[in-house]
TrEMBL record:
Keyword Protein biosynthesis included in the entry's annotation: no
Keywords attached to this entry: Hydrolase, Lipid degradation, Lipid metabolism, Signal
One protein family per Pfam: PAF-AH_p_II
Signal peptide span: 1-31
Gene3D superfamilies assigned: alpha/beta hydrolase (3.40.50.1820)
Name of the protein in its database record: Lipase
PANTHER family attached to this UniProt entry: PLATELET-ACTIVATING FACTOR ACETYLHYDROLASE (PTHR10272)
Length: 365
């Protein structure tokens, strides 16, 4: 069997090995173009604040971002998806030789929090192998625009990140970073989450915490739920669900949004993981979607392809046949519905069965 770039990427993500995102992308020396992100659909403007945390017990320092609904954002600067230095490193690692500017997010840095509406539910995000905390910004800003506080975490030695003093960090191939390392980073953040939010003037409800992750971060989500009952609901965005030790039983809601890693995928841990779910559970599969169907890659890669002159055939090898605009709607609708159901206790017909609005999404019995 020919090992295509897509299969190589899928295998690497399953095992936590970093592979250049754009191997085989044509080089192009063009003037800088700014990529774009779709706007969130919620009623609230969004603020985001980067924070530098140090876990002295584990000798790890990490960057996190706190996203929350804001007010009076007009005079506050908009935050880029990635700052310039880590973006350059990310593109260089993928052999993408073009001059592009990171997309601007919906987050305005430094805006005051929206107050007077009670304590807010919290969702924490863990990224994939060799990724970064911004890789599901479409989902993050959608949740924040609907009233959630979202905390995204860069995992040391496994992310493209920049510290306040200008130090740049990139994934280190010589350091083994497992889903358990991601999970322990999240547990460290959970212990400080109330103080972090209070310092930003945000009132959170520590009794309503959810978590989601993409790829390796999805596996970490299950491991965090095994370790900490503060997390009431977990969402996997195409997680391989592979770890040593493996996850144990979970009695709280858990949903799998699958593309490459399903219960029938060879060398996937999803089939072994599914019987461990003893609470509310769903597997919903995106037809035509590949591994990046649930993250910003599905929207950004076609823009890079247009700039570099990549063929439609080669682009399809990366993003499959799921149209980017449809992927965005899926990313905005399904995570929001899941957390609204389990953290806000609002009925969500979208999660009861197939929807005419989303014919691509198949409920796996």
């Amino acid at each position: 069997m020919t090992l295509t770039r897509r299969r190589l990427l899928t295998a690497a993500l399953a095992t936590g090995v970093a592979v250049p995102l754009g191997s085989g992308w044509p080089a192009a020396a063009q003037a800088a173009a700014r990529l774009t992100l779709p706007a969130p659909t919620g009623p609230h403007p969004v603020d985001t604040v980067p924070l530098h945390l140090i876990d002295r017990a584990r000798h790890r320092e990490m960057m996190v971002s706190v996203w929350y609904p804001a007010r009076n954002v007009g005079r506050f600067p908009v935050t880029p998806w990635l700052t310039a230095a880590p973006l350059r490193e990310l593109l260089a690692s993928a052999d993408i030789d073009i001059d592009v500017a990171a997309p601007l997010t919906a987050g305005h840095e430094g805006a005051p929090a929206l107050v007077g509406t009670g304590r807010r539910p919290v969702v924490v995000f863990s990224h994939g192998a060799g990724g970064h905390r911004s890789e599901t910004t479409i989902v993050v800003q959608e949740l924040a625009s609907h009233g959630y506080v979202v905390v995204t975490v860069d995992h040391p030695d496994d992310s493209y990140s920049e510290f306040p003093d200008g130090r740049l960090t990139v994934p280190d191939d010589d350091v083994s970073v497992t889903p358990w390392d991601h999970a322990h980073d999240i547990l460290f953040v959970l212990d400080r989450i109330e103080d972090l939010a209070a310092g930003l003037g945000v009132m959170i409800d520590p009794r309503r915490i959810g978590m989601y992750g993409w790829s390796k971060g999805a596996t970490a989500t299950a491991l965090v739920m095994n370790s900490d009952r503060r997390v009431l609901a977990g969402l996997s965005l195409d997680g391989p669900m592979q770890s040593v030790p493996f996850a144990t039983e979970i009695d709280r809601p858990f949903m799998l949004l699958t593309a490459e890693f399903t219960r029938t995928t060879e060398d996937s841990g999803v089939a072994e993981f599914w019987p461990l779910l003893h609470g509310w559970r769903r597997e919903i599969h995106a037809e035509g979607g590949l591994h990046g169907a649930y993250c910003d890659h599905q929207w950004l890669l076609p823009q890079l392809a247009a700039i570099t002159g990549m063929s439609d055939e080669d682009l399809a090898d990366w993003i499959g046949t799921l149209a980017p605009a449809r992927a965005v709607r899926i990313q905005q609708a399904y995570p929001l519905a899941f957390f609204d159901l389990h953290l806000r206790h609002q009925r969500q017909p979208l999660l009861d069965g197939p929807s005419r609005a989303f014919p691509e999404m198949r409920f796996v019995s």
